Amino acid sequence: MADICRKWRIWILPVLTGVYGLLICILVPILLTNSIKNGLKKEDQGALVGGGFVLLALPIAFYEIIQHMIYYTQPRLQKYIIRILWMVPIYGVNAWLGLIYPSGSIYVDSLRECYEAYVIYNFMMFLLAYLNADHQLAHRLELSPQIKHMFPLCCLPDWQMGREFVHMCKHGILQYTVVRPLSTLISFICALNDVYGEGEFRGDVAFPYMIALNNLSQFVAMYCLVLFYRANATALKPMKPIGKFLCIKAVVFFSFFQGVLIAMLVYFGVISNIFDTDNTDDIRHISSKLQNFLICIEMFLAAVAHHYSFSYKQYVNLAQNQAWWDAFRAMWDVSDVHNDIKEHLGVVGSSLSRRIRGHGGDYQQAWDSANERTSLLPDQVLASKSAPACSFSGYSSDSVYVDDIPSISTATVDINHLSVNNNINT
């Protein structure tokens, strides 16, 4: 038995393939039988076609996920890749359930909407992990040309290249990780109280306000992501980022605006007239049905794109390797998300508090007063906790850390007495 467990890399794919084949043999006949009993209505046809695309997408996505777990040689990168790859199964199954149970689409869509924010966060952290492997990202950006804001935000002051630029981009994306689940929760509560009004653009329902809020938050996240890419385009070339960027933008951002467009076309009667129905409930569900049907098809295309853009092959021949349960544990461990969101809320809360009190202050003051983690990556150790300080007499409030001065190992310099204690390496 122990020998079989040690050879799991050999049998895991055949076993899972057999289980998936058995599931299809059981599930497909049941769905076909139920559809035939119902007279093969348009809703049943859409669920069957959409389900077919989902069944094609799932094995492609799971194959890539399992291969990353088998060749889990770069945990700092692959844990984010695995989380991104789970987008296809979650989106696909979620959209298919929305086709089968259209009346409960507001509830099943909640998981998908929250995972949208999670995917954006993980893609940003994947880029940071790749760029900051040597912990020199902020220093390299300080030496890079200034990145100007783009239209329509070109009037904003430029973000100082370096640590401030990285954290502004990171927090611009993190706000979507906070806003999206909150707006989903509000929509869920409104739906329970019959004031959500899905697909209705009226002032007395919550739907248009939630759309506007999510649209603004998503625009900020996408803008920060593009700005971050522009600043690091040269450094990101070896990883072939274009395909990865397109996968994220196409699935997350395009699907959102696709849903908004469909809702508007249905509300103004363009699409509902095609379906030739006067039933209010049917018209209200048409937009969600179309959105879910298109997502089922798009997830098959996304699975193929992920197979090439986030391939496991570049991690196969690396020397180091870890057990599969490390990948599985890292995949579900969201403590890094919790810490980053806590950090983000600390910055926002500190900045608002200073403005309310009228103290003003720049970005760095808000950062320090929030007592944030200053690492660019979750696994980077703070210099302030690990390195001894070099203190200057007369400037007791300021400290210069050894990590920032490579030529000094452990030193205390007293300027007034011109004395040097300990060792100074030249």
Automatic annotation (TrEMBL):
This is Transmembrane protein 184C. The chain crosses the membrane at residues 12-32, 52-72, 84-103, 115-133, 207-229, 250-270, 290-310. InterPro entries: Ostalpha/TMEM184C. It comes from Microctonus hyperodae. The keyword Transmembrane applies. Pfam families: Solute_trans_a (PF03619). Keywords: Membrane, Transmembrane, Transmembrane helix. Its main location: membrane. One of its GO terms (cellular component) is membrane. It is a multi-pass membrane protein. It is found in: Membrane.
